[in-house]
Specification:
2 domains; mainly alpha; Serine Threonine Protein Phosphatase 5, Tetratricopeptide repeat; 161 residues
Length: 161
Protein backbone atom coordinates (compact mmCIF):
# COMPACT_ATOMS: atom_id res chain seq x y z
CA UNK A 1 0.00 0.00 0.00
CA UNK A 2 2.84 2.38 0.85
CA UNK A 3 4.45 1.76 -2.57
CA UNK A 4 1.18 2.61 -4.29
CA UNK A 5 0.95 5.96 -2.43
CA UNK A 6 4.50 6.84 -3.43
CA UNK A 7 3.73 5.90 -7.02
CA UNK A 8 0.50 7.93 -6.98
CA UNK A 9 2.24 10.96 -5.44
CA UNK A 10 5.08 10.78 -7.97
CA UNK A 11 2.55 10.58 -10.79
CA UNK A 12 0.64 13.59 -9.49
CA UNK A 13 3.83 15.65 -9.12
CA UNK A 14 4.90 14.68 -12.64
CA UNK A 15 1.52 15.65 -14.07
CA UNK A 16 1.55 19.02 -12.30
CA UNK A 17 5.10 19.70 -13.46
CA UNK A 18 4.12 18.90 -17.04
CA UNK A 19 1.04 21.14 -16.86
CA UNK A 20 3.02 24.04 -15.43
CA UNK A 21 5.81 23.62 -17.95
CA UNK A 22 3.39 23.98 -20.86
CA UNK A 23 1.30 26.75 -19.33
CA UNK A 24 1.68 30.54 -19.46
CA UNK A 25 3.48 30.28 -16.12
CA UNK A 26 6.49 28.91 -18.01
CA UNK A 27 6.56 31.99 -20.25
CA UNK A 28 9.35 34.53 -19.90
CA UNK A 29 8.56 36.08 -16.50
CA UNK A 30 10.05 39.47 -17.37
CA UNK A 31 8.47 39.77 -20.82
CA UNK A 32 6.06 42.51 -19.75
CA UNK A 33 8.50 44.39 -17.52
CA UNK A 34 9.60 47.66 -19.08
CA UNK A 35 12.84 49.18 -17.76
CA UNK A 36 12.68 52.89 -16.84
CA UNK A 37 14.81 53.75 -19.88
CA UNK A 38 12.22 52.28 -22.25
CA UNK A 39 9.34 53.89 -20.37
CA UNK A 40 10.99 57.33 -20.60
CA UNK A 41 11.78 56.91 -24.31
CA UNK A 42 8.20 55.76 -24.98
CA UNK A 43 6.75 58.77 -23.13
CA UNK A 44 9.01 61.15 -25.06
CA UNK A 45 7.85 59.64 -28.34
CA UNK A 46 4.20 59.84 -27.28
CA UNK A 47 4.70 63.54 -26.46
CA UNK A 48 6.02 64.21 -29.96
CA UNK A 49 9.67 64.37 -28.91
CA UNK A 50 11.43 61.81 -31.13
CA UNK A 51 14.81 63.51 -30.66
CA UNK A 52 14.53 63.12 -26.89
CA UNK A 53 13.56 59.48 -27.32
CA UNK A 54 16.59 58.88 -29.54
CA UNK A 55 18.88 60.72 -27.12
CA UNK A 56 17.71 58.50 -24.26
CA UNK A 57 18.33 55.32 -26.25
CA UNK A 58 21.54 56.30 -28.03
CA UNK A 59 24.24 53.76 -27.23
CA UNK A 60 22.06 52.02 -24.63
CA UNK A 61 20.03 49.52 -26.67
CA UNK A 62 22.58 46.72 -26.38
CA UNK A 63 22.68 47.17 -22.58
CA UNK A 64 19.13 45.83 -22.37
CA UNK A 65 18.22 42.17 -22.03
CA UNK A 66 18.16 40.30 -25.34
CA UNK A 67 14.69 39.46 -26.52
CA UNK A 68 11.63 41.50 -25.66
CA UNK A 69 13.42 44.45 -24.02
CA UNK A 70 16.01 44.91 -26.72
CA UNK A 71 13.40 44.44 -29.45
CA UNK A 72 11.22 47.11 -27.81
CA UNK A 73 14.20 49.49 -27.75
CA UNK A 74 14.93 48.89 -31.44
CA UNK A 75 11.24 49.48 -32.18
CA UNK A 76 11.32 52.79 -30.31
CA UNK A 77 14.37 53.87 -32.32
CA UNK A 78 12.57 52.82 -35.51
CA UNK A 79 9.45 54.81 -34.60
CA UNK A 80 11.46 57.86 -33.50
CA UNK A 81 13.38 58.04 -36.78
CA UNK A 82 10.14 57.39 -38.64
CA UNK A 83 8.49 60.30 -36.79
CA UNK A 84 11.35 62.51 -37.97
CA UNK A 85 10.88 61.32 -41.55
CA UNK A 86 14.31 59.66 -41.57
CA UNK A 87 13.37 56.36 -43.19
CA UNK A 88 16.99 55.51 -44.01
CA UNK A 89 17.79 55.25 -40.30
CA UNK A 90 14.40 53.89 -39.31
CA UNK A 91 14.58 50.77 -41.45
CA UNK A 92 17.66 49.13 -39.86
CA UNK A 93 16.13 49.72 -36.43
CA UNK A 94 12.83 48.20 -37.58
CA UNK A 95 14.73 45.22 -38.99
CA UNK A 96 16.59 44.80 -35.69
CA UNK A 97 13.31 44.82 -33.74
CA UNK A 98 11.87 42.12 -36.00
CA UNK A 99 15.05 40.02 -35.85
CA UNK A 100 15.33 40.31 -32.06
CA UNK A 101 11.88 38.81 -31.69
CA UNK A 102 10.10 40.57 -28.91
CA UNK A 103 7.81 37.89 -27.50
CA UNK A 104 4.16 38.87 -27.51
CA UNK A 105 4.88 42.22 -29.22
CA UNK A 106 6.60 40.67 -32.26
CA UNK A 107 3.50 41.21 -34.39
CA UNK A 108 3.64 44.95 -33.66
CA UNK A 109 7.22 45.22 -34.91
CA UNK A 110 6.25 43.54 -38.19
CA UNK A 111 3.24 45.83 -38.51
CA UNK A 112 5.34 48.96 -37.90
CA UNK A 113 7.94 47.90 -40.46
CA UNK A 114 5.15 47.13 -42.90
CA UNK A 115 3.71 50.64 -42.53
CA UNK A 116 7.11 52.16 -43.19
CA UNK A 117 7.62 49.99 -46.26
CA UNK A 118 4.16 50.76 -47.59
CA UNK A 119 4.78 54.50 -47.29
CA UNK A 120 8.07 54.02 -49.14
CA UNK A 121 6.17 52.37 -52.00
CA UNK A 122 7.57 48.90 -51.28
CA UNK A 123 4.17 47.28 -51.37
CA UNK A 124 5.22 43.63 -51.73
CA UNK A 125 7.56 43.86 -48.72
CA UNK A 126 4.82 45.61 -46.74
CA UNK A 127 2.30 42.88 -47.57
CA UNK A 128 4.78 40.23 -46.43
CA UNK A 129 5.22 42.04 -43.10
CA UNK A 130 1.47 42.50 -42.60
CA UNK A 131 0.81 38.82 -43.35
CA UNK A 132 3.50 37.78 -40.87
CA UNK A 133 1.98 40.13 -38.27
CA UNK A 134 -1.48 38.67 -38.95
CA UNK A 135 -0.16 35.15 -38.38
CA UNK A 136 1.27 36.25 -35.02
CA UNK A 137 -1.80 38.28 -33.98
CA UNK A 138 -4.81 37.18 -36.07
CA UNK A 139 -7.30 39.41 -34.20
CA UNK A 140 -5.44 42.70 -34.67
CA UNK A 141 -7.63 45.25 -36.42
CA UNK A 142 -4.74 47.59 -37.32
CA UNK A 143 -2.91 44.71 -39.00
CA UNK A 144 -6.04 43.67 -40.90
CA UNK A 145 -6.65 47.24 -42.05
CA UNK A 146 -3.02 47.74 -43.08
CA UNK A 147 -2.97 44.45 -44.98
CA UNK A 148 -6.19 45.36 -46.82
CA UNK A 149 -4.78 48.79 -47.71
CA UNK A 150 -1.51 47.28 -48.94
CA UNK A 151 -3.36 44.72 -51.06
CA UNK A 152 -5.58 47.44 -52.59
CA UNK A 153 -2.46 49.50 -53.29
CA UNK A 154 -0.79 46.53 -54.96
CA UNK A 155 -3.90 45.88 -57.07
CA UNK A 156 -4.02 49.53 -58.13
CA UNK A 157 -0.33 49.49 -59.03
CA UNK A 158 -0.82 46.31 -61.04
CA UNK A 159 -3.79 47.73 -62.96
CA UNK A 160 -1.77 50.84 -63.87
CA UNK A 161 0.91 48.78 -65.58
Amino acid sequence: MHGFRVFLTAGAVSAMTLLLWHSRAAAEPLEHYQPPLLAKAERALERGQPRRSLALLQGRVLELRPGAQRAAAHDLVCRAYFAQGDWQRAEPACDAAVEEGGGSAAWSFRNNRGVMRLLQGRTDAAIADFRAAARLQPRSRPVAKNLALAERTAAAQFSLR
